[in-house]
């Protein structure tokens, strides 16, 4: 029927050919392990979103570390200037 997706390969049909697409249930799913040790399947979109968020957080964390180092250097310079007077 048009507009319907198959949930898997019918058991009565012959095995899929190499050019046939994989069944939707197995197409590109990634599993993640939750804090409780449970495995959960996620879509490729969610996996990409998670990866992008992790990269962005890592970038922000590096920037924050750099800013903290700059603040420490400025505080040290101000401290030296105050003790020199």
Question: What this model shows, in words?
Answer:
This protein has 85 residues and is mainly α. It has a domain at 27-84. It has one helix at 44-84, and strands at residues 30-33, 39-42. A two-stranded antiparallel sheet has the order 1-2. A hairpin with a 5-residue loop joins β1 (30-33) and β2 (39-42). The longest helix is centred in the C-terminal third of the chain and has 41 residues, at 44-84.
List keywords for this structure.
mainly alpha; 85 residues; single chain; rod-shaped; disordered N terminus
Short description, anyone?
By secondary structure, this protein is mainly α.
Give the arrangement of secondary structure elements.
Elements: E1 30-33, E2 39-42, H1 44-84
Antiparallel strand pairs: 1-2
Amino-to-carboxy terminus distance: 87 Å
Residue share in β-strands: 5-15%
Low-confidence stretches: 1-14
Instruction: Classify the helix fraction into a percent range.
Output: 40-55%
Q: What quaternary form is this? A: single chain
Number of helices: 1
Q: Structural class of the helices, strands and pairings?
A: mainly alpha
Overall mean pLDDT: 76
Helix-strand topology string: EEH
Question: Main sheet, how many strands, which sense, barrel?
Answer: 2 strands, antiparallel
Shape: rod-shaped
Q: How many strand units?
A: 2
Cα gyration radius (Å): 27 Å
Strand order of the largest sheet: 1-2
